[in-house]
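Hi R.,

Quick one: here's the Homoserine dehydrogenase sequence you asked about.
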Amino acid sequence: MEELKNIKVALLGSGTVGTGVYKLIERQREELPHKVGAGLTVSKVLVRDKNKKREGIDPSVLTDQWEDIITDDEIQIVVEVMGGIEPARTYITEALQAGKNVVTANKDLMAVHGGELLDIASHNGCDLLFEASVAGGIPIIRPLKQCLAGNYISEAMGIVNGTTNFILTKMTHEGMEFDEALALATELGYAEADPTADIEGYDAGRKMAIMASIAFNSRVTFDDVYTEGITNITAKDIKYAEAMGCTIKLLGVAKNTESGIEVRVHPMLIPSDHPLATVNDSFNAVFVHGDAVDDAMFYGRGAGEFPTASAVMGDIIDVARNIQFYCTGRIHCTCYKDLPIKKITEIESKYFMRLLVDDKPGVLARIADTLGKNEVSIAQVIQKNKVNDMAELVVITDLVLEQNFADALVEIKGMEHTREISTVIRVY
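And here's the predicted structure, written out as tokens:
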């Protein structure tokens, strides 16, 4: 009987995800030969301090020297789960140039330098897989690149950040204000000590850059993505949304239009009967529209040790199978188009605007006149509350050019009877 081949793997990083990957490989040790046709062994784990005890990881495989990995010809798969741009970018580049295949979960890196790294992988006939960089455990990169490759994808949108979704869920279902919900998210480990990347939309923006690049076969980087966070959303806004039959979610939206790619992240009112409105807590969901498949939705855990490790393991197994049949590098960079990317001012949206004005005759008429002068059509006006001698207005617009609405907003802010523009949120 032919001796079973053993494929050696190196992990770069032993944090939450790295530890999860190590544990999964150990857990699947008996299954992997049947799934892959070969065994998988983690032979090295790169860490900052190899003397620090890491629960569940054999101390003998720990190293603090990159040279121990890059010079080891027996290591065929390098798994980068360190995060950040450097030294991850350098390590991945050197690994690919040395003919090693790479699996990464690094959204920050792929959203900015994905194109160049994929080119290096293609030049060296190596795999560079990154399923875990978007939506944690939810399969979306591989479906877009393979399962849905026969489609013209016109839209990919969804909830791709679990922290902000958890916060908005608590604000919606329990009436919490933003600060209270953020404190709870931090206490439960959903939010980092510095939650800026999540609550300001940057994390979701990086994921949308990656997803849009693959969905539309044209390179989109993080700098191309308009991002807006949830820090200004209040419990009052959520109640108004509910009264309108809507739910507020932080959505990533990417559209492939005749005039170019739209890609943005911002809070949005969506109808409460929309499938994404029912995605709660730390769950993520991605909604895709293709000309052949029509609508497809992917739903599941968007983060965490084992959900993310699951996506990494899927890539490792894919690479190992390719190694077995000498076909690494078979799926290269799929950004073969060079489509224009629209600025946010060139996009059309509907708006929800909540403002405080003097409770005097003619004020609403002046606001309506200002909006009309800027080609902003009003769909609905709600006036429910009075605050001292002020009236609280909620204005819902029809579909308008963002630049026109921005111009109108500047004028309304400058009106003598405007006391506060409390909230501006787009409407799906």
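The domain at 151-301 is CATH 3.30.360.10 (Dihydrodipicolinate Reductase; domain 2).

Cheers,
M.
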